[in-house]
Amino acid sequence: xxxxxxxxxxxxxxxxxxxxxxxxxxxxxxxxxxxxxxxxxxxxxxxxxxxxxxxxxxxxxxxxxxxxxxxxxxxxxxxxxxxxxxxxxxxxxxxxxxxxxxxxxxxxxxxxxxxxxxxxxxxxxxxxxxxxxxxxxxxxxxxxxxxxxxxxxxxxxxxxxxxxxxxxxxxxxxxxxxxxxxxxxxxxxxxxxxxxxxxxxxxxxxxxxxxxxxxxxxxxxxxxxxxxxxxxxxxxxxxxxxxxxxxxxxxxxxxxxxxxxxxxxxxxxxxxxxxxxxxxxxxxxxxxxxxxxxxxxxxxxxxxxxxxxxxxxxxxxxxxxxxxxxxxxxxxxxxxxxxxxxxxxxxxxxxxxxxxxxxxxxxxxxxxxxxxxxxxxxx
Length: 379
Description:
CATH topology of the largest domain: Aspartate Aminotransferase, domain 2
Shape: globular
GO molecular function: transaminase activity
CATH class of the largest domain: Alpha Beta
Radius of gyration: 21 Å
Pfam families: DegT_DnrJ_EryC1
Distance between the termini: 23 Å
EC number: 2.6.1.-
Number of domains: 2
Strand content: 5-15%
InterPro entries: DegT/StrS_aminotransferase, PyrdxlP-dep_Trfase, PyrdxlP-dep_Trfase_major, PyrdxlP-dep_Trfase_small
Family: Belongs to the DegT/DnrJ/EryC1 family.
Low-confidence stretches: none
């Protein structure tokens, strides 16, 4: 008699948190529906204040997505056509898309092989007279080396827009990501550490001037209804998403601690496994493990491990298989493409060929993590 297939383990289980939050979410949604103030209503305002308080920043401006957060943050930082913005090639394309949206040029530099984040020395070497800003990505929840990057920015008079899409709750010596640059851009995509039930984003700002610009930019360039000071955008966080995010925010430290529990269990169980390089906590900041991403021996080894996991009904993913400087969107040879300077970035390219991400979310049980470890070890 055939044994039943083992229960599948997904990359992320978005159903698992709802029972914990059901009462707060359902009550908040019901109240919001009764009040029918759906655009920039009281929940958005309350969320902005709560996030600002949690992150320790003066201002937080909610927007429609993480991509919009980056786009509007660059505009508020004064980045213009003809400028260059230094960033990482090992990130989701939204990081570079936002630079193109404002007419600037992404200048990709190589990454640190242990943290997968921007290498500060490479950043400084790439600065030109056209450089206006730096976008460090706190990739997979590991804070970038912000002390070094801030020192570089100060020496050269540059703005820093932190891409915090994967790092809500991470910090460097108690200073939260999103509180260390000129602005910080967050995503509330459902799978993020703090995720909604649809798209959403937020920008932190250290100055009232930047926050004022952001509030106008998200709302058709308007501070006062039907009076428009500039060409703006329609990028307002939905009131119902704000309800959900307000319900989740008080639990974010618990959720992140549980992610660290899973990550540390993986690392303990996989230490010494042949041909695997485990993710490093580089000591610069507190990792919140949006992803647990290790390196395989090579692309063939990765494919074999992914097949083995799939055979055991375990999900896995590759973030990211093609570094941004190798994406067709930046060839500049066809419609919708942008031309960028050619670059040889060997660390990013080698990382893209070898990286593999394992399931991770706060509710992942130790027994499931152990099952994944056993499969990877070939037990």
